[in-house]
Structures are given as structure tokens and as C-alpha cells.
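The instructor's notes for this session suggest beginning with a concrete chain rather than abstract definitions. Hand out the sequence below and ask the class to guess, before any prediction is shown, which regions might be ordered.
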Amino acid sequence: MTPTAAAETDGSTGPTQDGSRLDRWRARAVALGESRVPHVSWWLLLLAGVGLLVAGVVPVGPAWLGGAGSVAVATSYVWALAARTGGRPGVFGALTALVGVVVLLVDDDRASTGAAVMTCALSAVLPVMMTVPAKRFREAARECAVAVAIASVGAFATVGFEPALTVVRFQYATLGLALAGAFLLVYRLGAGLHGLGRRGLIATVGGGVVLLVFVGYAELLREYGPGDVVTTLLDGVRWSRENLGAFPRPLETVLGVPALAWGCHMRARRRQGWWVCAFGAAGTVSIANALVDPSVALLESGLSVGYGLLIGLVIGYVVIRVDLALAGSRGRRARRDEQASAVRPEPRRTAALL
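After discussion, reveal the predicted structure:
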């Protein structure tokens, strides 16, 4: 009697049965991925994390609620980013949850600070990846609002870990990590450097110059103090904080929101729009680390983010109109025709980009 026949006779598991069992498991995994269970589970995890963060801010209940909320939000964000970029959301989400729980149990400043830095950077990259192309400016404004909302939740998750690091060092660390992560992903989404094109190259170089000017000027200001012109600007900042309640966050206003608006608008037409969107991480990271500075009240931080969004959208509108004018789309009818021809497809917001 052959081994296969013996296996069939005594009821043991043979090679064919092992293969069919593996196929059944794979079919179940595919069916689970296509069902609504992962989406519902993700929303439940995110809402639970937001609820715990709110309880920690109020505060209500035990002191560990804020940290637990940060772990839940960080896990849901890693899950979403892995799913959006074609990774393994279940594996990376579970690993994030495990690391987060260990950080809470260890209760060490270095561990909590590292978790806060990574959560902040993650909360800056995910909003950029969650955007979709926008044919019209109002759709681009919607994408900017979605990105700001995601980064704002990440801001609460960041401070929930209670980082022990100076504000300036924290801002520089998260800015560098967020931009590096965004550009690494955009390198694949934008078809590499050869997919930049002339317009994408100009936009990327321009965004880099704006970023360097902001960072360099801030360092010079801290090193040598304000001059006459800077003193006038600081007077304007004080007036805005006293009369309007806050001053717009510079990186969000001048670079982040305009780059996201223009990039989403460009992505509906050209793939290199992803390279412009990458600079949106400079604005979202500014939002994600907005609550790290204990000298700024929660209301003022919220107002500064809101003002930055509104003014940034105005700047983005001007940039988009200039771009359309240079492309030859002048006049209302020409713009309508141009919008109708903007049909570059991308997956929906909840689908994988890669």
C-alpha cells in the first residue's frame, strides 16, 4: 500500500489535506480582509483611544488613562499607515501595542520620550498618506482639513506619553523624522526621482528653500536675539495673541497647508504631486507637537492650528491659481475643461496605495 493510500485509509492528514487546509486558511484571511471587520475594529480602537485621551486631559479616572489612550491611538495610526502603504497592518499594529504597553509598564523617561517622538512623527506622516487627489480647490481644502484633524488627534497621543525633552529638541527631532518618512514613502509613490518632472523639481526645491529659511532663521534668532525688524514682527505676534487668542503656526501656515492643497490638486493631474504633498509633513508635524510646550494653553494651541489652516488655504488657493495660469487654464470655462480632464486615478482613502 502506498503512503498516500495508507494516509487516506487511517484518516491521517496527508499532503493533499495539508494543502487544502492551507488554502482554506488563506481563503478565510482574504475574506476577513475584504469584510468590514477590520474597518470596524480600527474605528473602535481609535475611538477608544480618543476617549481615554479625553479622560486623561479632563482628568477623570486613574492617571494611566492618558498613556493607554496614547497606545491605542498610536496602534491605530500604525495600523492605518501599514494598510495604506501596502504593509501588514495586523503585525505592525500588534507590535506597536506591545511596545506601547511595555513603555507604560517600564515608566522610564527615555522610553516614554522615544514613544512620544515616534508617535508625533507617525501622526505627521499618516495625514499626508491619507489624502486623495482633488480636482477642485474645495476638495483640496477638505483634504487639508482631514490631515489637520488626524494630526490634532496625534498631538494628544504625543503628550499622553509625557515626554521629558526640551521643546526645541523635540520639535527638531520630530520634524526630521516626519520629513524623512514622508519622502521615503513619496519616493515610491512618485515613481522615484525621474518622476519629478520640471514642475515637481521646482516645487520640491522651492519647498526645501522655504523650510531651510524657517529653520535657519529660527536658529539665528535664538543665537543672536531679535533685531529691529524681528522686534516689529514679535510685536505683531504679541498683538495677535492678546487680541485674537493665538498666532498661526508658521510652518503649518506658510509651507504645510499650502503644500498639501497644491499637492492634492496636482495629484489629480500628475503623479509628481506626491512630491509637493511630502512637504505637508512639515505642517502636520507642527500640529502634532503643538501641545508639547507646557507654556501654551490648550485653547491657544487649537486657535493657532485653526488660524494656520485658514491662512494656509488662502496661500494654497493663490498658488493653485498661479499654477493653472502658467499651465494655460485661464478663464472659468477653461478651468472647467481642465477639471474635467483631471482624471488621474488613485485608490480610495481606505485602500492601499502600493
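Then share the key points. Residues 48 and 69 are 7 Å apart (CA to CA). DSSP finds 15 helices and no strands in the chain.
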